[in-house]
Amino acid sequence: MRLHPALLSLAAALAVCLSPTIASSQSWLDVAREAAKAIDKKSQSAPAGQQPSGTGGSATAKPATEGQSQAASGGDVGGQPNLTAVKSDFLPGEKTIFYDDFTDMAGDEPPPHWKVRGGMAELRTGGSIRQLTLTNGAIVLSPNLRSLPQNFTMEVDLTLANLSYNGGRVSWLFLAQDETQVLELRLFAQDTSEGGHVVTELVLSDPRSDAEVLGSAKPALDWHKPIQQALWLQDGRIRLYTNGVRLIDVNQVEVDMSRIRSIEFQQDMNNSPEAIVGLRRVRFAESTPDFSKVIASSGRYVTHGILFDTGSDRIRPESAAVIRSIARGLETSPALRLLIEGHTDSIGDAAQNLDLSKRRAEAVRSVLVAQFNVDASRLTTAGLGATKPVDSNDTPQGRAQNRRVELVKQ
């Protein structure tokens, strides 16, 4: 561990003082166990290359590696979730700088895009799940990412199971060249006979002073699904979301991300020897530019933040903030007309990808018209499948870049 002594004291105090209940009628870990039966400690690693299908989905890919949104969608409107009812305002960054969904990892090999220390990280699959699973007490994973822009977003889908009353902690550490800690996102969790419990914190380590706890929250979560964490740093403002709900929002934070030279995901589960921690998707990206400014200056806006169910044109609720920003830009520029393009990676049948990209572009148009009152005559659509890649389709990160929606000024 590379924590200031004051942080160690704080962590110990919080672990002892955690309340035994949450605002839920069900134990978090009981439900997490149900959702992860196929990947508990007794499950076996699947054969190399086994692919899941079913839950989750990416913007245009078929592998199901992302958990479903837990934001309330307020019912369907014309076959699509009611995005106007979704409260989350998280905008994922657009320029991907690291992405892994473990789709190029073999079952008996270490993760190719991560450095592993202190234990073993193995691929486990079951049903629709593909997960990098950590079962030892204390493990450190480092993504192959050496720097971050000043403004960035981080998105993580993770699972926890088999925690004891003593609980444990998982943390994201952002470290400088001398390995001093600049920023930490930590999550404490424990299980009792009376219910599960979780506390999440955001800690800033200022070299001029002691560490500052920027915020702490105790979220009520739907434990039937993976935990979705999102961190957004933009112009000195830091927002932390869990399952689409904004938990922490602080501003005037003086943090110099140019100091970052490494990032670590630390699992400290020594107090819960049967614990399982799983990562299903990790994405770092440069923060999203304003839609109106980009479309006015370049005439083309590229978004990786409009997501769909796997193999479907059904838009996922966490896409609401991006679509809302597009609708707002159309409202403020009455003369603006757009071509909506759907793009996929090259996984699967080319003809099916082409058809799917067409239907997804039309789904975006229909939501803008039916739910955000945009004049239909201002929007046209095109599906281009995998014919216009912007990156290689040989890696998870390249495929993530290719799965996108583009809006072109007409």
Topology readout:
Layout: H1 5-17, H2 28-35, E1 76-77, E2 80-81, E3 95-100, E4 114-117, E5 121-126, E6 129-134, E7 138-143, E8 152-161, E9 168-176, E10 181-192, E11 195-204, E12 212-217, E13 227-234, E14 237-242, E15 245-250, E16 260-268, E17 276-286, H3 291-297, E18 300-303, H4 320-332, E19 338-343, H5 350-370, E20 379-383, H6 396-402, E21 404-409
Parallel strand pairs: 19-20
Antiparallel strand pairs: 1-2, 3-17, 4-7, 5-6, 6-17, 7-16, 8-13, 8-17, 9-10, 9-16, 10-11, 11-12, 13-14, 14-15, 18-21, 19-21
Could you describe the 3D structure shown?
- There is one protein chain.
- This protein has 2 domains: 5-56 and 101-286, Jelly Rolls (Sandwich); 291-409, 60s Ribosomal Protein L30, Chain: A.
- It has 410 residues and is of the alpha+beta class.
- Strands 3, 5, 6, 8, 13, 14, 15 and 17 form an 8-stranded antiparallel sheet that branches. It has a 7-stranded antiparallel sheet with strand order 4-7-16-9-10-11-12. A 4-stranded mixed sheet has the order 18-21-19-20.
- The longest helix is centred in the last third of the chain and has 21 residues, at 350-370.
- The chain has helices at residues 5-17, 28-35, 291-297, 320-332, 350-370, 396-402, and strands at 76-77, 80-81, 95-100, 114-117, 121-126, 129-134, 138-143, 152-161, 168-176, 181-192, 195-204, 212-217, 227-234, 237-242, 245-250, 260-268, 276-286, 300-303, 338-343, 379-383, 404-409.
- Strand 5 (121-126) and strand 6 form a beta hairpin.
